[in-house]
Amino acid sequence: MNFDEAAKRAVELKTTGQCNCCQAVAVALAEETGLSEDTMKKIASGFCVGMGTMKATCGALIGAVMVAGMKLDGNGTVKYSKTMSEEFEAMSGALTCKDLKGIDTGVVICPCDQCVRNAVMSYAKVMGEQ
């Protein structure tokens, strides 16, 4: 899989309103799972906007971790999730939606399209050779 192309597609899916952040990542990486894009879109539908509260983990990162779990058949996913979260945080500046969007500070750390890109690229770095 070409992860640069997957990241570009994920950004396009998000910015055009076809998908929320979690769906965009899950759909762009669907080839990694063996599931259809439509199925991935449905599975990821409720995990955007920090689980709907902006207080939880960025939905884009959740999408990447979901794909990792599918690729690994759930075996050892926690280890990969931890590393992927660290990569994403290093790229994006935070993990929670409210922090990324500057809800408390008024300063956006990382816009949604960049979060989506960073989630795909975090996945690529951690899972690319699996």
Kindly describe this structure.
The protein has 130 residues and is mostly helical. The chain has one domain (3-127). The chain has eight helices and no strands. The longest helix has 16 residues, at 77-92. The chain is globular. The model has no long low-confidence stretch (mean pLDDT 94).
**Helical content (DSSP H or I, runs of 4+):** 55-70%
Question: What's the overall geometry?
Answer: globular
Number of helices: 8
SSE string, helices as H and strands as E: HHHHHHHH
User: What structural class do helix, strand and pairing data support?
Assistant: mainly alpha
Number of strands: 0
Taken as a percent bin, the fraction of beta residues is under 5%
Mean pLDDT: 94
Ranges where pLDDT stays below 50 over 5 or more residues in a row are none
Computed Rg = 13 Å
Reported for the largest beta sheet, the result is:
none
Terminal CA distance: 12 Å
Task: List the domain count as a whole number.
Answer: 1
